[in-house]
C-alpha cells in the first residue's frame, strides 16, 4: 500500500494502471493454479461450484501467453510490479509467520487492523474486549 501511494504521487496514472494490471493478472493465474492443484490433491472436498478442468487449463494457457508477452514487451513495468508484490513479504513474516510475538507487537497489529477496518468500513470493528460493549 505504501509503495503504491509513493508511485501514485511520483508517477502518472497510466503507469500505475500498468503495474496494477500486471499484479492482478499474476494473482489470477496463481489462483487458477491453486484451483487445479486442489482438484488433484483434494478431489473429495466440497465445492459449491465445480467446473470442467478444461476451462481453467484453457484460461492458464491464455494467461501464460499474456504474462510472457507482458514480460517481453514491458519488462520494467513487470519488474516494478513484482517489487510491489514483494513488499508484502515482510508484512507476511511480521503478521502471519512469526507466531511468538511480544504483546506490544500483537497490540500494534490489532490496533492497526481495527483502524483500517474503521477507515475503510470493511468489517464491523471488533476492537477491544467484550466488556467494553
From TrEMBL:
The gene is Slc7a10. One of its GO terms (biological process) is D-alanine transmembrane transport. This is AAA1 protein. The chain crosses the membrane at residues 16-39, 51-73, 79-98. The lineage of its organism: Eukaryota, Metazoa, Chordata, Craniata, Vertebrata. Keywords: Membrane, Transmembrane, Transmembrane helix. It comes from Chaetorhynchus papuensis (pygmy drongo). The keyword Membrane applies. One of its GO terms (molecular function) is L-amino acid transmembrane transporter activity. Coiled coil: none annotated.
